[in-house]
Amino acid sequence: MVDTTQMKVSDEIAISIEKMNKWYGQFHVLRDIDLSVYRGERIVIAGPSGSGKSTLIRCINALEEHQAGKIVVDGVHLTSDLKNIDAIRSEVGMCFQHFNLFPHLTILENCTLAPIWVRKIPKKQAEETAMHFLEKVKIPDQANKYPGQLSGGQQQRVAIARSLCMKPRIMLFDEPTSALDPEMIKEVLDTMVELAEEGMTMLCVTHEMGFARQVANRVIFMDQGQIVEQNEPEEFFNNPKSERTKLFLSQILGH
Amino acid sequence: MSDMHSHLAFVRTEMLAQQEPPIKEKGIVKWARSNLFSNWVNSVLTIVALYVIVRLIFSAGPWFLNGIWDTSSLAQCREILDGARGACFSVLSERWQQLLFGIAYPSDQYWRPTLAFVLMLVAAAPVLFVALPRAMLIITGLFPFVAYWLLWGGTIMTSVFVLIGVVVGYLVFTKAERFGFVLGLVAGLIAAVVVWKIGGAITPAVDGIMVLEPVASRDMGGFMLNMMLGVVCISLSLPIGIMLALGRQSHMPIIKGISVVFIEFIRGVPLITLLFVASVVLAYFFPPETNMDLILRVIIMITMFSSAYIAEVIRGGLAALPKGQYEAADSLGLDYAQAMRLIILPQALKISIPGIVNVAVGLFKDTTLVSVISMFDLVGMIRGPILASTEWNGVYWELYGFAALLFFVTCYSISQYSQWLERQLRTDHR
After folding, report:
1. Which fold has domain A13-101+169-253?
2. Do B162 and B289 share a structural domain?
3. pTM given for the model
4. Residue ranges of chain B whose CB lies within 8 Å of a chain A CB
């Protein structure tokens, strides 16, 4: 496998987050987040549960509202303006922990729905694109089945293909392998590695540290709603600076 | 494995043929043993039940078989039966037109409601069965206008102008929609009203075209009235119910407030009260010269009533969907209307089918309540003109049994259809 951490990253900024804060009622979930993501960068976000890592990437495509600070995605300033939000969402793909495929539609329909309705692409062309990406995630033969007939790993790969069909410039992954059996994790990670090799800008919340070592060019460690440490994977794993990071790493790499 | 093959080794040389199960373990014998006589309590219950069934058959059987179909009064029936048990079905054969069409619908025009009924089946078919060609939906779209003309009569131009108004209004709406949804709606509405006004002015001039004998609303009755109210109210209350359910989930406080107040108020009031409001009180609120049709008033009330119930059923379906479905739709960039129409509602409505059918069947039977505000629907017909007549005073079982049969056939069909539909839509665990 290519060591993707050596791949070139452009200087162009894809996502910039400045002084972003978010509250759930009185609870301060995200505190003063500052983050710039360059095009082609692959960032893994790690941290204990409740540290705000999922909330952070969900703010980027406005599934969660932030109360203070500024988020600019692909040059579009994320405000409460619905037009901006829809514009950003159609450029930013997202994969969820529980796949969230549409159970009443076939795999193919899952993949063609958004291109047809959002991008206004003719059905035939959308289907060709969908088949192309289903082949890429290695399940073209399941195209006419329903999500309920597929295994978890297959469903997650369909979910990735569904996002790719929108030709996104940025992909967000929210714990994509946490709901999977161990043997299915690999097939999903393989797909994600392949995506990274093609230079996709990726933000990935995950506990798969092997994936982080192999693919990421930056690892961000979060705790209590703030970014505690970020570094290149080698430095991050071999030479963590903060006590909190050391404790976390010793716990998850313990066995 | 290798260490045990010496004494555990086994090789099958010929395959066993398939055999019949033992006689006690198959067919009706097994079924009876396991379902009817599995222990002594069940055996006793089975025998008691059999006794009751036999008694019922022996008492009701002769009543049916001795039934008399061709007399002109109950007294004649009794004379012929001469004390024997027997039904007097003559009331049905003599009064069936009144039971089906009401007392005052002109008898030479019965073909009109019958044709409307047949057309209704044709118009409903493409909505109920997706396999049918989509072009048939044109019939569905035209049906309300044709049915109005058939049932109420008059010139077809009234229906035509209403239809043109609707079409023009819709076209204006689609053109004006990009300036905002509300603006589009208002513009469409204004365009439709303008067309209706023009139509209203022209209609007297072209009065001669395709005129059917006009029938007034007060002359409609019988099972036809139940059907009209049931079909119209169910088909109107489903979309209104969906809008109310979505409104109740809305983040916009005014829309949410209106939906909640409407639903809670209507659900808190008995239907019969609303019907009295329709028949008596509503007139006070309109200017004296307006004379709103009674059937229209009743339709509005029943629709309001059932749409509140359907809204709550659909809200249950919406609540049952995982939050991830909304998020997945959002994350793909679908706007609210697309997400609802393509992702959320198809799933929520599927979950809600049993509840919606429950409301629909209940609503259909509740249409008999209009007999209380002196409309002569099927039950009103029986309670009023027929039982009050000197010929048929005292015939209860035959008439109410007939009414029950008509309602049962309709409601059971609806129920069977919904179960079929649920099986068709089951895509998750195949």
Report:
1. Rossmann fold (3.40.50)
2. no
3. 0.84
4. 322, 324-325, 327-335, 338, 342-343, 346-347, 350, 425, 427-430
